[in-house]
Design brief:
two-stranded antiparallel sheet, mainly alpha
């Protein structure tokens, strides 16, 4: 999931800067001084990430993503074997750090790794609980997550899937709607208004649990988010943005992969029932 503070930047939103555009950016005065009684004749320019002498590369972005992935997996193992009781606190810390990182204009490596550690502990505890209830479900969810990631990456590399402004707007609206539904479902479960273990997700619609239908929609949203993440990396490399933004790309990919894994895990659990 791409950083909303960065996606409006022309260097990262899919627009390739031409030599003439770069020249105009470089020639633009750093500040305009207004004389008393005179109105400014220039609109304030949007902040632009300048091409760097130490640019973001595909290899470096992959290495940063791999480092975060290894961190998540390592702390998931710790959470599974030794600290499953930290699942809920780690989930809260991970949520807070995720929001902080998502809206920071400059990536903070320490906060990003803090997010990976917290989410690793959360996933370890969650996976341990699900595996105890439904043996084999974790390996199935991992295979499902890697399959969606692999297929999406192959389709992206082949040029068969790309984002569009209209579709991205629809997906973002759907994500907000899904978040509202999830929060509402949580409240209904905590207050006892719904007795099903899955809350409203356990209600059947046309012979299928609502949680499966909504879960499949969430998997689609996550897959589209992967495409957004891939484009973020591609555009950053093409426009030679500073290398540090590779951490933003790695963070976005981790957020999406974790979301995808949790959704697939929940779908499988609902389908397997008691």
């Amino acid at each position: 999931m791409s950083n909303p503070a960065l996606t409006s930047n022309p260097a990262l939103n899919g627009k390739t800067l031409s030599a003439e555009e770069l020249r105009r950016i470089y020639d633009q005065p750093a500040a305009q001084v207004e004389r008393p009684g005179e109105a400014s004749t220039q609109a304030p320019a949007a902040p632009v990430i300048m091409p760097s002498d130490d640019p973001m590369t595909m290899e470096d972005s992959i290495a940063k993503t791999a480092a975060l992935f290894v961190t998540v997996v390592a702390f998931a193992a710790i959470g599974w074997m030794f600290l499953p009781q930290l699942m809920l606190p780690a989930a809260i810390v991970g949520l807070v750090l995720g929001l902080v990182n998502a809206f920071k204009k400059e990536p903070n490596v320490a906060l990003i790794f803090g997010y990976a550690v917290a989410q690793g502990l959360f996933l370890g505890g969650l996976s341990s609980f699900f595996e105890a209830q439904w043996p084999g479900i974790v390996s199935q969810a991992v295979i499902g997550t890697l399959s969606v990631f692999g297929v999406t990456l192959l389709l992206f590399r082949s040029g068969k899937v790309r984002t569009s402004p209209k579709m991205t707007k629809i997906v973002l609206i759907a994500m907000v709607g899904y978040l509202v539904f999830s929060l509402l479902n949580m409240v209904l479960m905590m207050t006892g208004a719904v007795t099903d273990p899955w809350g409203v997700r356990g209600v059947e619609f046309m012979g299928m649990p609502l949680g499966v239908i909504i879960g499949l929609l969430a998997v689609f949203l996550a897959a589209y988010s992967l495409v957004m993440d891939f484009e973020f990396i591609q555009n950053g490399v093409r426009n030679k943005v500073p290398r540090r933004y590779g951490w933003s790309a790695a963070f976005g990919l981790m957020v999406t992969l974790i979301w995808l894994y949790v959704e697939i895990l929940r779908i499988l659990a609902i389908l397997r029932g008691d």
